[in-house]
Amino acid sequence: MSRRDVQVPGGIYCHVWEPDHDPVGTLLAVHGITSSSRAWAPLARQLPGWRIVAPDLRGRGRSNALPAPYGMAQHADDVAAALEHLGIHHVLPVGHSMGGFVCVTLADRHPHLLDRLVLVDGGLPLPMPPGATPDEAMQAILGPAAQRLSMTFDSPEEYIAFWRQHPAFADWNADVERYVRYDLSGDEPPYRPATSYNAMAGDFHDLGRADGNDFRTALERLRVPTLFLRAPRGMVDEPGGLFSPEYAAGWAARLPGFTVVDVPDTNHYTITLSEHGAAAVADAVRLEVAR
Question: What is the pTM of this model?
């Protein structure tokens, strides 16, 4: 595998992993709400025969200077424009966390690009705390991930030390450290997380809108075969995960061709940022290809 960096004119930044030979196919790997393209490095190692296109979504990573509008429709259109720039006309989208919402919206707005989806612990409406305002819901669900975006750090080492205390990363590894280093923005102190707080908040509020919600409309119209991989533990390694088994099963009963599979011994982060989690996602990709 080799990796190249692509700046789409006027648009988002992408990492592209390429095999040495003709690829089996192309994965579109879409990251979560405060994440980046580097979350997919373990998966790239697991699928050496595939081309993997991993964008930094608007407001994240090296696309963090791109302005609003945010929201799932904008991200889906950004991703489609990147694929057009790369000359890619068919992909298997794999979306983690908010990336799952983007992939569902992509299937609705650009259906010619795909014929199935793999959703990784994301892509179903988040159960909101009853009676909470949008900002209260954001803090309740995203918690430390949202708070981190308003913090500053004196050095990359301080940022790494901050992440090493995160309960989701009890098993620290080199992939996580590279992911964290990439997530830091700036050439000198104070350093800031690369994700824009306004982008994160704008996207969360977009998902919570009662009217004109592009993602919810897209989900209700979803008709392509979809595999949903559920992490049994959540964002701070708490049991139960973001989506309970009963909640995911309820959506599977509503949507044709929607299948739920648990990935044991993973949390919301390690389902992509550990060898075990990435291997399970790779197995899911191979299963969808076999089908």
Answer: 0.96
